[in-house]
Amino acid sequence: MLSMLVFLAVVALLGSAVQAGEEDVTPTCRAVNAEVDGALRSSDYLMHIQSGAYWLDDFSVQLTPTLLGVALPFKMSMDATNGMVRPLDSLTRNGTASGCSSQIKTVQVPLRYDNLQVTYDATSQFLLHKVPGKLVINLDPVYCDVLIVQGVNGCRLGDFSAKLTGSHFHFNPNSSSWLSSMVANMLSSLLQAQDTPTSSITIEKLQANVNTLFVRAWCELSLF
Prior knowledge:
By secondary structure, the protein is α+β, with helices and mostly antiparallel strands.
């Protein structure tokens, strides 16, 4: 009988210890909107004084013109250099930012870029004709989800994702000749309709901007 009572007492003590341990690691979360807005003001200011732009990688692309849905037996090509994305000092919060604290601290932040524009110096080749000009890509709002992790290994970007909601391509030739205008219209339509590497190149730079400036500002200000 005594042994049974001892056994039940041990089980009760172990149960209490496990429950206490679970309570210790249960995260407590709260909105951190004001703190995130403060970090964004700091990072946007730093981006502004650094010209508000990032250089983009060069790329080349070959495009297949079509007529009434039928591919034509020739291609157009374009080489794009000296790319930039701006204004990167337009990063804002796009919803409630949530900070959770347990053994580590995490901050989940929805962000948004408005009025981003990508520009490249570009040269298009159509048959034997080369047409130099400027490639301009106006981006619809870009939505980002950012996770910041702070623990024994420091404060860092834990995860990043971005969604481009739309892109509008315009190739503006240096010359106003009828041939240049024709190539420009054809190229703009093809770029709009076919895949190009601009989306992945742009997202890579947006992540770099968020990591270098916003995450850095958050971690250095120790707002949460």
